[in-house]
Amino acid sequence: MLFRSLAQRTRISRDAVQRHSSIVRLIAGDSVLDGMLANELRALEAIAEIAVVPGLTSAVTAASFGGFSLTGLRTREVRIVEAADPGVNWSVTSRELLIVKGAGQGAARVLRLLQDAGCPASMPFRIVTAIATPSQRTIAGVVGDGANASDLAGLGLDTVIFIGEPVRDAV
User: Fold this and answer.
1) How many CB atoms are closer than 10 A to CB 99?
2) Tell me: the pLDDT tens digits for 73-127?
3) What is the CB-side half-sphere exposure of residue 2 using CA atoms within 13 A?
4) For 19-54, what is each residue's pLDDT tens digit?
5) Is-contact 74 165, C-beta < 8 A?
6) Do strands 160-163 and 124-129 pair parallel, antiparallel, or not at all (unpaired)?
7) What is the distance between the alpha carbons of residues 74 and 168, in angstroms, rounded to a whole number?
8) Cα–Cα distance for residue pair 151/171, rounded to 1 Å
9) Which of 164, 155, 166 lies closest to 108, judged by CA?
10) Rg of the chain on CA atoms, in Å
């Protein structure tokens, strides 16, 4: 995947607008969650008329392909965190679903941090990697068993971990 700065992306879009009557700019990832959409809109609004067509976030897509809901009968709260954020509160209650983005390289570490924060060993998790691709893979388990699982090594950056009751009864 090629990463470019906002200035580089804006220049490419500006050049394309000057050559063509309309362009399509696709933004990969969860652009509403990470602030990229707002930055892109501010940078491009002076260049062209903009129409936003929303897509699905990686978390919603992974849950859909994984066969589970983000909320349930008793679970009404969803919390989304970045695995690399040093300020994450790793505690999880029975009334919430914790979604951890960017956890591919550190999935076992995340599960250990959950245990250290008092998450019940019986709390279910689903790890989804290579989301919405032919290589998509789901790993299911409970926090107490998952922290030492060898199949958690080498997961890609597009990995999302779901921790909480809604994933217990996934299809």
Assistant:
1) 23
2) 778 889 999 888 889 999 888 888 999 988 877 888 888 899 999 999 999 999 8
3) 3
4) 887 778 777 666 666 677 787 778 778 777 878 777
5) yes
6) antiparallel
7) 12
8) 21
9) 155
10) 18
CA distances from 127 to 11, 13, 57, 69, 75 (A): 37, 35, 16, 14, 19
CA 31 to chain centre: 10
Question: Could you tell me which residues come within 8 angstroms of residue 114 by beta carbon, excluding any fewer than 6 positions away?
Answer: 90, 92, 98, 123, 143, 147, 163
- Among 116, 115, 109, 156, smallest CA distance to 137 is for 156
Amino acid at 91: S
Amino acid sitting at position 54: P
Residue carrying structure tokens 């969650």 = 33
Confidence (pTM): 0.76
The token pair at 77 is 């709260």
